[in-house]
Amino acid sequence: MSEEPAEIVVDLAAIRHNVGVLRRLTGVPLIAVVKADGYGHGLEQAARAARDGGAEWIAVATVAEAVRLRDAGYGGPLLCWLTVPGTDLVRPVAEGIDLTAYSVAELDDIAAAAATAGRRARVQLKVDTGLNRGGASRAAWAELFARARDGERAGSWKITGLFSHFACADEPRHPANDRQEQAFRAAVALAEDSGLRPELLHLANSAAAILRPSSRFDAVRCGLAIYGLDPAPGETPADLGLVPAMTVRTRLALVKQLEPGDAVSYGHHWVADRATTLGLVPLGYGDGVPRHAFQPGSPGTAAEVAVGRRRRPLRGRVCMDQFMVDLGGDAAAVGDEVVLFGAGPDVPTAQEWAEACGTISYEIVTRIGGRSGRVYVDTGDPASKVDP
Ligand SMILES: *Cc1c(COP(=O)(O)O)cnc(C)c1O
């Protein structure tokens, strides 16, 4: 093991496998979402694995992330959808990156960048169909589409796509899903009436791609599912066959005995009611382990780790650099492997951690890191990788 406190093991074969699963299930081109450092799996590595697995497109949030992928040598179809004010748009236009416009003002910025770059920009339009986040509000669609058509005729850009994003895709029976899909179809009709012919219409994220076939249009934008995590717990078919790509493992740094009445960690929020052994894990919130992984009270909640193939609950507050687990009196030694979450039959999932922490698995994998480095493996055959 390295000098880093933990290894974040990323299996590239799992990403390729998951992309293949989604590609076959949906039957439409896949836009693999690798924003936020590939949801913690590594931007360039996740993009390459997704491409190798059959993803036709790569998408990120910011222009800076897209440019980083070009710098890393990725020359294929690439979409970004969040422009921070003041961002240099000349470089992405020159690099053939699809920019996203939410407003006429953004189109004006792109027109200026295209003139400077001496090249037609590639632009996708994002419409807000009810998430009330990014994208043009319904009242602004007509003006946005008219400006987009005028700029296309003037040679500033080609409008390559039109898209929107769901608010409640992980709840397939939520009425907002139907409303948003209807609104998206209305936006498509209005865009066509305005004289636009965007080639790529896309609406679905991972959950909708899996659970809502009517939302697949010309492509689906999948993030979480390509990393093997369940985008709609309790709804996703159990036999889908996604394989988690990330496993976080470290080693016990200390083992000690506790007597009944001994209290553990800051605030003494956990008190042993029997003699037990306590293991010290050298990771904390400075490494992205949520402090909420132990919540005092009654009943309180605690995430679990696997030590020697057995589940062990966290005990006491998570500290900045370390946390403690209850080894239940079992023989355990300094240096024994501790798996926080990942792939494998006896290993907690990122989803279980999310539930213990009151969050979603997206946040668990995206935030883990801090002082620990990623290690890339390629098992080649993810079906046989579950028991390393
Ligand atoms: C993050 C994001 C996605 C991917 O969502 P998942 O639920 O991870 O599949 C798709 N589209 C947009 C606009 C996003 O911001």
Plain-language structure description:
The chain has 388 residues and is of the alpha/beta class. It folds into 2 domains: 162 residues, Alanine racemase (TIM Barrel); 132 residues, Lyase, Ornithine Decarboxylase, Chain A, domain 1, CATH 2.40.37.10. 29% of the residues lie in helices and 24% in strands. The chain is built from 11 helices and 21 strands. The strands form 5 sheets. Strands 11-14-19-18-17-20-10-1-21 form a 9-stranded mixed β-sheet. Strand 12 and strand 13 form a beta hairpin. Helix 1 crosses helix 3 and helix 10 crosses helix 11. The C terminus is likely disordered. The protein binds pyridoxal-5'-phosphate (PLP). Pyridoxal-5'-phosphate (PLP) binds next to helix 9 and strand 9. Catalyzes the interconversion of L-alanine and D-alanine. May also act on other amino acids. This is Alanine racemase. GO terms for molecular function: alanine racemase activity; pyridoxal phosphate binding. Its cofactor is pyridoxal 5'-phosphate. Belongs to the alanine racemase family.
The amount of helix comes to 25-40%
Q: How many DSSP H or I helices?
A: 11
What is the top-level CATH class of the largest domain? Alpha Beta
Going across the major beta sheet, what is the strand order? Answer: 11-14-19-18-17-20-10-1-21
Radius of gyration from the CA trace? 24 Å
The general outline is: elongated
| Corresponding CATH architecture of the largest domain | Alpha-Beta Barrel
How much of the sequence is in beta strands?
Answer: 15-25%
Tell me the CATH topology of the largest domain: TIM Barrel
> Separation of termini?
16 Å
Structural class by SSE content: alpha/beta
Which ranges are low-confidence, i.e. pLDDT below 50, for 5 or more consecutive residues? 384-388
Ligands bound to this protein structure: pyridoxal-5'-phosphate
